[in-house]
């Protein structure tokens, strides 16, 4: 039983896949708990150094499963508890020193925007579409959308999506900075794999710490960020990997000057 999310670990790479295609990968109550548990499992495994977030079916994620909310007799307290479980998973991934790349196709709606922006690098297929639709059904942003969306595209543009029934196509999302790249649908899996392999083949710990510094730094003082940067680069410099790479860089630079 997957409860809507598949987890595969291939060496040092974790692949987290939304797997409720018939519901456009909208998160119901079991899937929310599964997301939280997968986040803790992945980030607590020291052998994992990079993550791919993708989805089966025609859509990436339609946010929360509003149909399930409406037909199961759920009360507001249950909706809050479900959102808190998903938030736990989002926060766990965002604050971990693990770079994550998302492969996005089709519809990304409501809370799906927040789940997508859990990733540090987003690659969209040319058929991707992005929309809020919270207010259309009388609900308010969740799944990190009120924080992650303005961090990605700015407050004014975030409000355009939240206050108007506006849908962005892939090209507009790229122009707004909502995604990092747009590729043909057929090329999406290959491109995302290339990005993850670049991290795995490179200075993996440094990529992970870079994502952590940027993400966590948004909620702290400048002084705290500077202190964290200083401590982190010092710790990195003492690792065998960094020492070897720094020495190779220095040797190459010296050769270039001679």
UniProtKB/TrEMBL annotation:
Belongs to the enoyl-CoA hydratase/isomerase family. This is Enoyl-CoA hydratase/isomerase family protein.
